Amino acid sequence: MDGMGPLLYEGKAKKIFAAARPDQVVHYFKDDATAFNAEKRGTILDKGVVNNRMSERMFRLLEEHGIHTHFIERISEREMLTKKVTIVPVEVVVRNVVAGSLAKRLGLSVGTAIQPAIVEFYYKDDSLGDPLVNDDHLRLLNVATPAVLRELRESAQRVNAVLKPFMADRKMQLVDFKLEFGVYHNKMLLADEISPDTCRLWDMSTGESMDKDRFRQDMGKIEEAYQEVLKRVWG
Ligand code: TMP
User: Fold this and answer.
1) Which residue among 13, 22, 30, 164 is least enclosed by CB atoms within 10 Å?
2) Burial environment of residue 123 by CB neighbours within 10 A (0 to 12, 13 to 18, 19 or more)
3) Distance from the CA of 89 to the center of ligand 1, in angstroms?
4) Ligand 1 residue neighbourhood (C-beta within 6 Å)
5) What is the pLDDT of residues 32-50, one digit of tens each?
6) How many angstroms does the Cα of residue 148 sit away from the middle of ligand 1?
């Protein structure tokens, strides 16, 4: 790696720097944690290291299964080199089990299995609080065409088909997760990160949360949970 260029963008959990090539960027994973649209803030010690290493594992695994991602290489404990994509401002959430906002919105019991998995779209806009939207809303907003949304939905289901059994083999139930996609040279790539910040993972023997819910809900042992997830995905 020829070193990092200027800071291009700073998000809640990552900083993005220019790379040597104009069509690549370096992601720097921070320990900063936020929840509830940044109303709650804190730090999770070494979260950046865990999320970087876990994302590397997830992206390599998905590439092995023919899913194209922005990942190029992990270049240090907290830095990842990726293709520079233009992010589609849609958060794609896949759900295998009722939890979180779905339980609240529809009054369903947490832990209820969802089969087949469902996909939801959220419009990525902090000032609006990332609202749940449907295909028509996204077309109205000129965010994505029906064909693009079909592609995102299919990719998300394919990611789930790889990750759900992978986690189960490691005694973790993949409850739900959030994906982001971006365009690179006219191709749609899976982007952002896949980590305990963006997934719900429940220990299969105890049912305990092993993800950011421990921070959101002040459950304690946050760092331990992140380290345990990392150990299981690489172990
Ligand atoms: P939700 O139940 O709060 O809608 O979250 C669904 C999944 O999406 C869960 O695995 C956590 C993840 N997520 C993010 O990655 N970023 C977010 O801003 C939110 C709200 C959820």
Assistant:
1) 22
2) middle
3) 15
4) 93, 99-102, 130, 176-178, 198-200
5) 999 999 999 999 999 999 9
6) 22
Give the pair of three-digit tokens for residue 109. 């019991």
In the reported structure, the alpha carbon of residue 66 is separated from the centroid of ligand 1 by a whole-number distance in angstroms of: 25
Cis before 196 (ω within 30): no
pLDDT value at residue 4? 82
State the Cα–Cα distance between residues 129 and 122, nearest whole angstrom: 9
Which tokens go with 181? 């996609």
Task: Tell me where in the chain the CATH 3.30.200.20 domain(s) lie.
Answer: 7-83
Domain with CATH 3.30.470.20 in the chain: 86-222
Residue 129 DSSP label: T
Contacts of residue 11, defined as CB under 8 A and 6 or more positions apart, other chains included, come to none
Architecture of domain 86-222: 2-Layer Sandwich (3.30)
Q: Which CATH code for domain 7-83?
A: 3.30.200.20
